[in-house]
Design a protein that fits this description.
Number of strands: 7
Strand order of the largest sheet: 3-2-1-4-5-7-6
CATH superfamily: Vaccinia Virus protein VP39
CATH architecture: 3-Layer(aba) Sandwich
Number of domains: 1
Radius of gyration: 17 Å
Strand content: 15-25%
Length: 279
């Protein structure tokens, strides 16, 4: 998928994704399933469907979240979405400022808020109004004063230059039609020496056009995956160093359940993306 599609194509993709995640936020499973990949075991497929079969907590633990962290969350923050656990690799420290790209209902923001403490700050950004509303309600229930949620696109972050020590994200960058711009924005809002720690789905070999053109697979966090080498190039062009894309071969079994029978797990896998803004 080109990183510089025309504005109409970009807007169409964003609207498709926004519709699906709005449905997930409001509990409209029928609408979410209409956008996502084919279902398995009663779940809506892909990373955007509701977690009805396994339960959100079980799915999150399968993705690497600790039960102790999940126990700290306000009700409704864990939707069982994503493809990994960026907070487990972000090396967060007390007093740091963290930005979460595509924050959803806030699971990673709330875990990060506990890790950075009262003197730290967490900013979650999401382009779906329904998700932002849900996350803000969850924040009110959490009692945490160091987390906030902002409506905005990850290609155009509503955040000042040099704000963050760390940027995290969970299975969202693959949904963007302008991934290079996402990394440019990440570089802009990071402090010198700041770091990127993202969990995402990446392509380990070129995807057939049929996969890239399938709205369900794109919306389900598979069809829009960028190839590893392209991600490394975009990060370098944005000005990052210490770049690494660590692919999890074990994640292919999970992805196979997102779109059973398609074979897309032979082309994509979950990965941890690391990079540093030079100091």
């Amino acid at each position: 998928m080109p990183d510089t599609p025309n504005d109409t194509a970009s807007d169409a993709l964003r609207n498709t994704v926004r519709t699906a995640y709005a449905a997930t936020a409001t509990g409209n499973a029928t609408l979410a399933e209409a956008c996502c990949a084919p279902a398995a075991s009663g779940d809506a497929g892909g990373c955007c469907g509701p977690s009805t079969a396994l339960g959100a907590a079980a799915k999150s633990q399968d993705m690497g979240y600790a039960a102790a962290d999940l126990a700290l969350l306000p009700e409704g923050a864990d939707l069982g979405l994503g493809c990994g656990n960026p907070t487990a690799v972000a090396e967060l420290a007390p007093g740091e400022t963290v930005i979460d790209l595509g924050a959803g209902a806030g699971i990673d923001c709330f875990i990060a808020a506990h890790k950075v403490g009262d003197k730290g700050r967490v900013i979650g950004v999401d382009m779906t109004p329904e998700m932002v509303s849900k996350a803000r309600a969850n924040a009110a229930r959490s009692g945490l004063g160091n987390v906030e949620f902002r409506l905005g696109e990850i290609e155009h972050l509503p955040v000042a230059d040099g704000t963050a020590d760390a940027i995290i994200s969970n299975c969202v960058v693959n949904l963007s039609p302008e991934k290079a711009q996402v990394f440019q924005e990440a570089h802009r809002v990071l402090k010198p020496g700041g770091r990127v720690r993202i969990s995402d789905v990446v392509a380990t070999r070129p995807l057939p056009d049929g996969f890239r053109d399938d709205a369900g697979l794109v919306c389900g966090c598979m069809g829009g995956a960028a190839e590893v080498g392209q991600i490394e190039t975009w990060l370098a062009e944005a000005g990052f160093t210490d770049i690494a894309v660590e692919v999890s071969e074990a994640s292919r079994a999970m992805i196979a359940g997102w779109a059973p029978g398609t074979g897309i797990e032979d082309y994509v896998a979950s990965a941890v993306i690391r990079a540093t803004r030079p100091g």
